[in-house]
């Protein structure tokens, strides 16, 4: 397997792309940790431009009318289940709160994503041996 050269990810909302099956579009769904604690809402999906695959959930939490909102990236590898209303992940709220900062306005570089994946304990999607989780990401 060849390593990716660009590693560029784009927000789904910034492209002309759509989710193949509308009921599989998880934007707007609540995100809950492994204990059922609320983490926020799926604001957007970060898509791998080379492979047309979702790599991260952009999760927004807190704030009022968009002010003071925190945004965090959660790898799709963390998803354990998806229902019509929510997305469950295998991490705790405390662990997600300690994740590396994410600023959606900064350049999106492969090494930035690598530090996030490492923090959550997942291997880089551009590395040899990586297997994309199957939908709906049940383990």
**CATH homologous superfamily label:** PRC-barrel domain
Q: How helical, in percent, are the residues? A: 10-25%
State the helix count: 2
Spatial separation of the terminal alpha carbons: 24 Å
* Backbone CA Rg: 14 Å
Structural class: alpha+beta
**What would you say the CATH architecture is?**
Roll
- Biggest sheet, in brief? 7 strands, mixed
Provide the CATH top-level class. Answer: Mainly Beta
Number of domains: 1
The count of strands amounts to 7
Order of helices and strands: EEEEEEEHH
**Molecular shape:** globular
Uncertain runs are 1-5
Beta-strand content estimate: 25-35%
Short description:
The protein has 139 residues and is α+β, with helices and mostly antiparallel strands. The protein has a single domain (9-120), classed as SH3 type barrels, CATH 2.30.30. The chain has 2 helices and 7 strands; from the N terminus they run βββββββαα.
Task: Please characterize this protein's 3D structure.
- With 139 residues, this protein is an alpha+beta fold.
- The chain has one domain (9-120): SH3 type barrels.
- 12% of the residues lie in helices and 29% in strands.
- It is built from two helices and seven strands.
- It has helices spanning 93-97, 110-120, and strands at residues 9-11, 30-32, 38-48, 53-61, 70-75, 79-82, 86-89.
- The two termini are 24 Å apart.
- It comes from Microbacterium bovistercoris.
- Residues 13-34 have a biased composition (Basic and acidic residues).
- Residues 24-95 form the PRC-barrel domain.
- Pfam families: PRC.
- InterPro entries: Bac_photo_RC_H_C, PRC-brl_dom, PRC_barrel-like_sf.
């Amino acid at each position: 397997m060849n390593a990716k050269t660009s590693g560029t990810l784009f927000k789904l909302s910034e492209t002309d792309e759509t989710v193949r099956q509308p009921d599989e579009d998880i934007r707007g769904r609540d995100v809950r940790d492994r204990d059922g604690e609320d983490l926020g809402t799926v604001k957007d999906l970060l898509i791998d431009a080379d492979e047309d695959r979702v790599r991260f959930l952009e999760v927004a939490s807190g704030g009022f009318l968009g002010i003071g909102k925190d945004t965090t990236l959660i790898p799709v590898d963390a998803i354990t289940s998806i229902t019509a209303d929510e997305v469950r992940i295998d991490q705790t709220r405390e662990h997600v709160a300690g994740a590396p900062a994410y600023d959606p306005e900064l350049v999106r570089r492969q090494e930035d994503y690598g530090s996030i994946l490492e923090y959550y304990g997942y291997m880089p999607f551009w590395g040899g041996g990586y297997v994309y989780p199957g939908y709906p990401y049940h383990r």
